[in-house]
Amino acid sequence: MIPRSNRCTLCALLVANVLFAAGCADSVSPAPKEQAAEVAPDQSQKSLRHEDLDAILWVQTSGEYNAITRQTYRLAELTLKDALADPNWTASLEQQSLVDSGEVKLADLKPAVILDVDETVLNNSRFQVGLIESETEYTRDGWKAFVTRKESTAVAGAVDFVNACRDAGVKVIFLTNREHEVEGSTVENLVSVGLMKEADPDAVFSKYEKEDWKSDKITRRTELASKYRLLLLVGDDLHDFASTGHHPSSEKRREMVDSHPQRWGQKWIVLPNPNYGGWEQSLQDWNNLSSPETKLEQKRSHLQN
User: Which residues are the signal sequence here (predicted)?
Assistant: First the structure.
């Protein structure tokens, strides 16, 4: 566990990193319109590009991504000590409702943290690379085949955080939208990368494990809220923290973030995922059946200049 005296230093570093990144972004001058017109690629050049290439290379090769995930889990470890020390602390909105109604007493519950799996503790970038190399899009069968191969690696910082939780007597729960039929492979993968000491299927709450355990994680969080005091929620998508409603627009998703300003970086810990997620789905009206051309046009329409 990290001493409390180091927290101010870490927080200052976090702020400095953000300011530095913002300064770098502002220091690059946009090309004049005339110049942009001269170098604009024609349609044949566009076809040589792949939408996910820069994002996946950033995840796989950049020191910055590695640093951000380590930094994020270090912040989570700092926060864990505060959460354990405060008997009224809960990270779950669902649990807070149960407490307010008198249905749950936090003092009666053992502490736990909830972590998403994909792009939170397991890095699936090899799956994305396969899509790029085969020039195909995501399919349910293709994803399941990847999961059963157990090729995912641990996100940097995740194993250290999980070990810190267990050393502190905190139950680690993996709440995932991987489907229940591949839960065995998921557990084996978690064990192989050190996120589980030994196979523990009861620590994994998969989609469709029960009839009402669907993509929205509210039902599963509510069930867990009656069994454990939920100290932290860790994930890469907004639905890992609270409901965003059915097929929310990008505006609605940002409103959800703004409505809980004190939770981010304290009770809710979010990791970066530039490859996919609700943020991308909201830009294409949650329609996965559209043609690639239509999806691209929909995304481009959201550019701000």
Answer: 1-21
